[in-house]
Write a structure and sequence with these properties.
The longest helix has 25 residues. Helix 2 packs antiparallel against helix 4. The chain has 14 helices and 20 strands. The protein has a seven-stranded mixed sheet with strand order 12-13-14-11-10-15-16, with helices on both faces. The protein folds into two domains: 254 residues, 3-Layer(aba) Sandwich (Aldehyde Dehydrogenase, Chain A, domain 1); 188 residues, Aldehyde Dehydrogenase, Chain A, domain 2 (3-Layer(aba) Sandwich). It is α/β, with parallel strands linked by helices. The mean pLDDT is 98. The structure holds nicotinamide-adenine-dinucleotide. Nicotinamide-adenine-dinucleotide (NAD) binds next to helix 7 and helix 8.
């Protein structure tokens, strides 16, 4: 029987070992999901909505236990685990409020005895291969609208958030979603790859660009709908007219929240030369005041990295930047203790020859570069293979709107960052992915529009 080891990143040790899937059990689950899906799709929408409403109530009732589970296996500070679960609730509310309208039949023509309409049919049995950094958010962004629109879901949580994935699945089952309709598949990359070999009707992935590319290649000849939500190298620009302290505090939070392990974490900052030094001073002061430590302590803001190998990635980016002339103003090395910490790190004097400004860091580290104009800032922000989020801090709304229009990113921000709304689509440009979740488009994406041509007899 295969098993999966569960680690505690703060302690740097194994805390559990759970049964995992193999190729045979993956095939069984996929076949069962496919067989069960038509009956689920034929239920009235109200029945599926009731399941998600009960699921929401279960999350609220068990929130503290669920937060502890997530913190133990990911190293996410407990206050942030609670925030994620509380932040999930308005997303669930959005899906419940909007699902029926998003997939309602559309009657688009009536004339000469001819009626034309569009229905939104479920895709069928869809796979969700997911990441660990916000396991409730990224999991439920797919699972909930997919279930509501009548699909069966084969869900592979990250091996670094498997207990959370199992908890999501258990609560959905307890809320009335049939076991064969919501299947959890436990394991690492090999188990994910086994899922791709099944007969599936859609693949919804959240994770790194490298894995996304492998998945797209594996499915290339299969004509299966593929949606990829990948990484970013999210830039922000601070203009000369800002309230420097407020901008520094907001951006420090955007860079360091979730220990910098967010796809939309601020990864690089361009600051106008007129305010550069003052901004950097406030920024470093804010970062130095952030409390790092045991993720189970309520006051901890910086936790452990969820994956130990990321320490070497961050160290290599710092060393490369320093070798090319950058200055480390705080942090710059592995944190104390046996666990997988990295000290919150601010690097200035950066430029685009440095890996720190080009490749996703996914940790508590940010590079800052001085710029002389809006044009230079826009050119540098767009000088990337990614395009998830980007933004500008300024008092001037029309200047902000003009700049945001030029940014190649799925999401743009004015005077805010690291923010996701259920009402807006979440998507990427370039190597940040294809497809989207959230908003009403992120409900329709789990369906295919079906065209009806209906001619009255005679
Ligand atoms: P990852 O690519 O290492 O793993 C993601 C998932 O893919 C895991 O479940 C893993 O087991 C599975 N997997 C690995 N190899 C596979 C294979 N060959 N076939 C099928 N499945 C396979 O990514 P991660 O470390 O879990 O997540 C971090 C990345 O996710 C970052 O790049 C981050 O930016 C990105 N991310 C993006 C978004 C977004 O909305 N765009 C959200 C969260 C995270």
């Amino acid at each position: 029987m295969p098993t999966l080891k569960i680690h505690n990143p703060h302690a740097g040790s194994v805390i559990d070992e759970i049964p995992a899937d193999d190729a045979a059990s993956v095939a069984d689950k996929a076949a069962a999901a496919r067989a069960a899906q038509p009956a689920w799709a034929s239920l009235p929408m109200a029945d599926r909505l009731a399941c998600i409403t009960r699921f929401r109530a279960a999350v609220v009732a068990q929130l503290e236990t669920l937060a502890i589970t997530m913190t133990r296996e990911t190293g996410k500070p407990i206050s942030l685990s609670r925030n994620e679960l509380n932040g999930l609730l308005p997303r669930l509310d959005f899906f419940v409020e909007q699902a029926e309208g998003a997939v309602r039949d559309e009657h688009v023509f009536d004339g000469g005895g001819m009626h034309e309409q569009i229905s939104h049919a479920p895709l069928g049995a869809v796979v969700n291969i997911s990441a660990w950094n916000y396991p409730w958010f990224v999991g439920c962004n797919v699972i909930v609208p997919a279930l509501l629109t009548g699909n069966a879901v084969l869900y592979k949580p990250s091996e670094h958030a498997a207990l959370t994935g199992l908890a999501i699945t258990r609560l959905l089952h307890e809320s009335g979603v049939p076991a064969n309709i919501m299947q959890c598949v436990v394991g690492g990359g090999a188990v994910g790859a086994a899922l791709l070999e099944q007969r599936i009707d859609g693949l919804f992935f959240t994770g790194s660009h490298a894995t996304g590319q492998r998945i797209a290649a594996a499915l290339a000849t299969r004509l299966v709908k593929v949606q990829l939500e990948l990484g970013g190298k999210d830039p922000m620009y601070v203009r000369a007219d800002v309230d420097v302290r407020a901008a520094a505090e907001s951006l420090a939070d955007g860079a360091m929240y979730n220990t910098g392990q967010g796809c939309c974490s601020v990864e690089r900052i361009y600051v106008h030369e007129a305010v550069h030094d003052a901004f950097v001073a406030h920024f470093v002061q804010t970062v130095k005041a952030m409390k790092a430590g045991d993720p189970m302590d309520a006051g901890t803001y910086i936790g452990a990295l969820t994956r130990e190998p990321q320490i070497a990635v961050l160290q290599a980016q710092v060393d490369d930047a320093v070798a090319k002339g950058a200055q480390v103003l705080c942090g710059g090395q592995r944190g104390p203790g046996p666990g997988w910490g990295f000290d919150p790190t601010v690097v200035t004097g950066c430029n685009h020859t440095m890996e720190l400004m080009r490749e996703e860091s996914f940790g508590p580290i940010v590079g800052i570069q001085k710029v002389a104009s809006d044009e230079e800032a826009v050119a540098l922000m767009n000088d990337t293979r990614y395009g998830l989020t980007a933004g500008v801090y300024t008092k001037d709304e029309s200047a902000a709107r003009a700049l945001l229009a030029q940014l190649n990113a799925g999401t743009v921000y004015w005077n805010c960052c690291d923010r996701v709304s259920p009402r807006l689509p979440w998507s990427g440009v370039g190597d940040s992915g294809i497809g989207l979740t959230l908003s009403t488009y992120g409900i329709q994406t789990f369906t295919r529009p079906k065209a009806w041509h209906l001619r009255q007899p005679g």
